[in-house]
Amino acid sequence: LIFRGGFIAVDMFFVISGFLITSLVTREIDSGRFRFITFWKRRVHRLFPVLIVATSATMLLGAIFLLPEEFAELGRCLASQSLMVTNFFFYSVSGYFAGASQEKPFLHYWSLAVEEQFYLIYPVLLWMRLRRALLVLGLASFVLTTQWVQHDAQAAFYLLPTRTWELLLGAAIALYPVEISARWRPLASWVGLLGILAASLLFRDDKLVWPGWATLVPCGLTALMIIAHRPMDTVGARWLSHPRLVHLGVISYSWYLWHWPVLLLGATVSERGQPVHVAWLVALSLALAFVSYHLVEAPVRHSRFIARRPLAAVTAALVLMVGVATLGARWGAAAADWALRPDQQRYAAVRGDLPAVYGVAGCDEWYRAARVQVCGFGDAGAARTALVIGDSVTMQWFPAVMETFGKQGWRVLVITKSACPMVDEPYFYPRIGRVYTECSAWRDAALTAVATLRPDVVLTGSTTTYPFTDGEWFEGSRRVLDRLAPAAGRVFIVRATPMLPFDGPGCLARQAWRRPWLPRAPVCSAPAQAESATDSYAAVSRAAAGYANVQMLDLNAVVCPDGVCAAQRDGRIVYRDSMHVTAGYITAVAQEFAKRLGVPAQASARRD
Length: 608
Known about the structure:
By secondary structure, the protein is an alpha/beta fold. The chain has 26 helices and 12 strands. It is 57% helix and 7% strand. The N and C termini lie far apart (62 Å).
């Protein structure tokens, strides 16, 4: 939590990698000793032995600790990782209702895939002495990054074209050395070191477009550190050359492979997020890195037997990659069969228990467009109209709206955009890596549409996860209500349902699947409300108080009785993820919804 900007380590790694590999290859080319097969053999020696050990251990432990559907995905990821295309895998599984990528044990392998894809071609360009072309390629890659991240942040993050410039920045330092006078090297060293530390403390992935212009900061500071430490005679260089730090750097690759699987798999048997438990898991991953480096990585890397047979080593690696990919696919298929067991299928199926709104084409286009589509349900010719407008957390009440109004002959309309609050404030949306401009444009057009529709009843609201201050919640809500209240008979602002600190169906499925000899069965319930959610609700309530026909609607006691939110209640699954309630549960409590709404159920007359 302290180093919120720890994600910059990947960008720093790319710069350092580009510098080191380029320095090595250019020396060999200039001396006439470079051989492509030898280069790729070294990559095999460096990466594959401990990679196979860490990956195999993760798969074996995953079979014990992960759910069948999680293990099935792990098998598919293993297949992609074996072919060094993991970055494409994680790009392909992104989506609004998709599970968080951060919960995948092989997530960190995406950067390894990017690096290997780059080094498959890069030595050829160096050998052809296309150095100026490399500079042009790096500049083009950066320009592409700044543009691509605005339209497809997931692609910009995971794919090689937008990461090439970082690797080539390190390469440029090796190809075109820059000298700093001895007088200024210490200052440059400390500026780089302290700048990187400040960035790791201050940068936040929920506030920055990444990768983008801000990526120049850690990459530039890393480049400055490399330049300042040539030769290694500065105070910062001597500090970084401490034997313990050097050894930490030596085992860093092994640590990189172990740390994420250990954290995620360990969280299934420990208190997730608790600092003490996280510290123990980090220490365990470091211990595994130390052991695997000294018992696996180093012995194979320095093996004379393998060194004398580069072609055989590369061929064996390719065969092994294909074999592991095949094994991963088979494991994934077997786990998919496990997921079909009745006790697991129930929890898997509930993830698709969505309101009917999402089955209508064009009703919700997420961030892809700002177009407003009014989706109609119920009696199209009814004299009275109920409108639901808002994000997906508001839209989860649609089944209850249909039970309350649709079955009484009303026309029910829907205007929705996922992750778009009914609060007139711009915000940075981490899922797309930029300011959600489509949301602002959509909300303006949607409010204009409401003024034309003039519904009798409006239900609206927003989840509480948006990064607004109390003042922004108040002012932004008031700006929306200034336009919404005059256009409607009555307006109800539905309080956002509390979030679970875990995935609801996943927790229940883990209880059903868990081996009896494992410690600590997961608890699938949590206290109902966070302080931030209470503060935002109070701010919106103050804004609503200024309008005679606007009323707050707090249904949290219906979803979380007695202040406790449970993934399952009275045999019925409540949540379909960590924040959305199932359509089935909403339908079951529709009578209570109508009662708290206080709107009399009246059959409407048809329009002439």
